[in-house]
Amino acid sequence: MIMSRGVEAVKPPSLPEDQEITPIASDRDIVTARQRGRTLAVQLGCSPTEATLIATAISELARNIVLYAKHGEIGLTVANGGGRPGVTVVARDEGPGIANIPWAIAGGHSTSGGLGLGLPGVRRLMDEFEISSQPGKGTTITTRRWKR
Amino acid sequence: MKVSILKQRDYLVASIQAALTDEDLKNLRDALVAQVGEHRSRGVIIDVAALDVMDSFAVRTLRDLAQMTRLRGAETVIVGLQPEVAFAMTQLGLRLEGVTAALDLDGGLAHLDHQTKPTTLRRAISNPGRRA
C-alpha cells in the first residue's frame, strides 16, 4: 500500500472473521441479506458496481430460498485468494432440492412462474459457482466473486 | 414511507425512497394501477434512483406495472436507474422490454409530454413546414 509520508495508516474497519449468517424466511430477509453482502463488499474495497453485482446475486439466491424452500440461510464469508479478497456467498436450504441440476442452471426454465433466469444469472454475476442438491434434502449453492 | 406518489399535471410521479421488498413492489404496482384510474392519469413516472438492486422480481414487477397501466391508458417511464444497477441488470440478462426508460425526472416528463400529445398535433410539430 502506498501512503503519503507522515500520515498514519488508516486502519480498515474490522472484517467479520467467521461466516455471517442471515436466516431467510421472508421477502424482508432477502433485502437484509443483500444489504449485508453489499456492506461486506464495500468493506473489502469493492467498487459500487461490484458491490451491486454481489448484492444482486444474493437477492436472486435468497429469493429462490423463499420461493422454493420457504426458509434457509445466506452465509457470507471473506475469501482470500493469494492476497486478493473476495466474497463467498453460501445459500443453504432444506427444501425440495433440485432433481435436474443441468436443467436448472441452463436457463429458460422455472417451476414457480419466475423468469427462469435465477441461477444462470447468478453464475454470470459471480466468478465461481457450485451447487449441490439432493431431492427431498435441500440445496446448497456456493458462489464467490473476487475483488477486481 | 418507502414510496411517495405525487400527482403532477396529467401524470403520477412515484419516488422510491429506500430498498423495497417484494411485497412493497407489488403494493406499488397495485397502488399505481388504481391511482391511474382515480386521477385519470395519462402517464406514470417511477423514480428508481434509490433502489439498491434490480433483480428478476423487481424487473418483472415493473414490466407488469407498465403493461397494466398501459391497459388503463397511461404510459410508464422508469427514471433514475443507477449505472451500477443497469450494469448488474445487463449481466443478469434482465430486460425492461416494453418499458420506456429516461435518465431523470425531466427526461421522463419530456418523454410523456411527447407521447401523450394528440396525434394530429404531434404530426403538425414533426412536419412544421406542412400547411394544414
Automatic annotation (TrEMBL), chain B:
<dbReference type="InterPro" id="IPR002645">
    <property type="entry name" value="STAS_dom"/>
</dbReference>
<dbReference type="Pfam" id="PF01740">
    <property type="entry name" value="STAS"/>
</dbReference>
<dbReference type="InterPro" id="IPR051932">
    <property type="entry name" value="Bact_StressResp_Reg"/>
</dbReference>
<dbReference type="InterPro" id="IPR036513">
    <property type="entry name" value="STAS_dom_sf"/>
</dbReference>
<protein>
    <submittedName>
        <fullName>STAS domain-containing protein</fullName>
    </submittedName>
</protein>
<feature type="domain" description="STAS">
    <location>
        <begin position="1"/>
        <end position="112"/>
    </location>
</feature>
